[in-house]
């Protein structure tokens, strides 16, 4: 999509990311037949390179899109509404759709555009199967991708040398966004995607599969509970004795009650792999919670520095798209 009109490309990528309020292109663009066909092919057509949008979302966007196209047309002899768009909307209207409450509970594929890696020859993106509810029925927040993971991903895309050729450990992997990014696009030698939730770990193979990483040696999913000893009675060395070069984590400091356990695990990792780089993206939703994280780090002998990488204003983002309302800190931890 790099060669498309920027407004059209932005709209398409926002739809594929299931943005509730995508930015529709201007009317003079929408009424053009070529633009309508491009939107249809990119967003609504059955395409082996994309995944279908949820039916309720697809119908809502199609209704609004066709309405805006009709409003933009001044001469119906010169312009019209794409037959493909009309046919797609008609097909959705012809059969019952799942109730809104039911649809909200279903997992769905979400496509994230990696704008910092895009070029004219390749549309870089990550597709993830997610639960769009904030908290799943199993009580975990790890089945959707959060803003801090998207922002950390942009930070790493801006400087791939941070993980290229290195062994990466991700804490609180959730949907696996950062693990997929590092393994598929940023050249990491190996990635261990860890989470304390068994439900989250069991869902990771689906996301590795859809991104072409199933069965590869580049990514390993593993359960890791913070605060627990990394080496148990059944193994002499953690991770088979292999060192880790980089630890990444995103949105893992939101609960003050688990911060001591998290920092305790970081302390163990530093002892096992001296010189390890630790990067954590923390969304500051609550200042007291964030300061609790800083305080525990200080007490455990870590200095916390901030990387200069502010969140772009929403209207300047080209993908992935995420909220610019709360600051997201890229924290670099070092042993004192």
TrEMBL record:
Keyword line: Methyltransferase, Transferase
The keyword Methyltransferase is annotated on this UniProt entry: yes
A GO MF label: S-adenosylmethionine-dependent methyltransferase activity
InterPro entries attached to this UniProt entry: Methyltransf_16, SAM-dependent_MTases_sf
GO CC terms: cytoplasm
Keyword hit for Transferase: yes
Listed SUPFAM superfamilies: S-adenosyl-L-methionine-dependent methyltransferases
Recorded superkingdom: Eukaryota
A GO biological process held by the record: methylation
Coiled-coil region list: none
Annotated PANTHER family: HEPATOCELLULAR CARCINOMA-ASSOCIATED ANTIGEN, PROTEIN-LYSINE N-METHYLTRANSFERASE EEF2KMT
Name of the protein in its database record: Methyltransferase-domain-containing protein
Protein species of origin: Cladorrhinum samala
């Amino acid at each position: 999509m790099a060669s498309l009109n920027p407004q059209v490309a932005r709209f398409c990528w926002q739809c594929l990311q299931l943005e509730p309020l995508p930015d529709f292109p201007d009317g003079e663009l929408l009424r053009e037949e070529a633009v309508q066909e491009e939107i249809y092919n990119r967003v609504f057509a059955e395409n082996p390179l994309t995944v279908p949008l949820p039916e309720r979302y697809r119908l809502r966007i199609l209704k609004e899109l066709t309405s805006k196209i009709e409003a933009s047309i001044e001469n119906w002899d010169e312009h019209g509404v794409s037959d493909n768009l009309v046919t797609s909307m008609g097909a959705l209207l012809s059969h019952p759709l799942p109730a809104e409450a039911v649809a909200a509970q279903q997992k769905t594929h979400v496509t994230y555009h990696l704008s910092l890696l895009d070029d004219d020859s390749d549309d870089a993106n990550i597709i993830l199967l997610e639960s769009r509810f904030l908290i799943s029925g199993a009580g975990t927040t790890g089945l959707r991708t959060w803003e801090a993971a998207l922002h950390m991903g942009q930070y790493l895309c801006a400087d791939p040398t941070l993980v290229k050729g290195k062994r990466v450990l991700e804490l609180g992997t959730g949907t696996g966004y950062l693990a997929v990014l590092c393994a598929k696009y940023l050249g990491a030698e190996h990635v261990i995607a860890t989470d304390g939730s068994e439900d989250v770990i069991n869902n990771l193979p689906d996301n590795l599969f859809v991104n072409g990483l199933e069965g590869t040696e580049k990514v390993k999913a593993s359960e890791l509970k913070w605060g627990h000893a990394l080496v148990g009675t059944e193994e002499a060395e953690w991770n088979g004795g292999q060192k880790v070069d980089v630890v990444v984590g995103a949105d893992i400091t939101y609960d003050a009650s688990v911060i001591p356990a998290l920092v305790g695990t970081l302390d163990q990792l530093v002892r096992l792999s001296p010189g390890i780089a630790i990067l954590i993206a923390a969304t500051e939703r609550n200042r007291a919670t964030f300061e609790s994280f800083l305080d525990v780090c200080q007490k455990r002998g870590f200095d916390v520095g901030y990387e200069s990488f502010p969140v772009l204003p929403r209207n300047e983002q080209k993908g992935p798209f995420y909220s610019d309302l709360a600051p997201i800190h890229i924290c670099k931890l070092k042993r004192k």
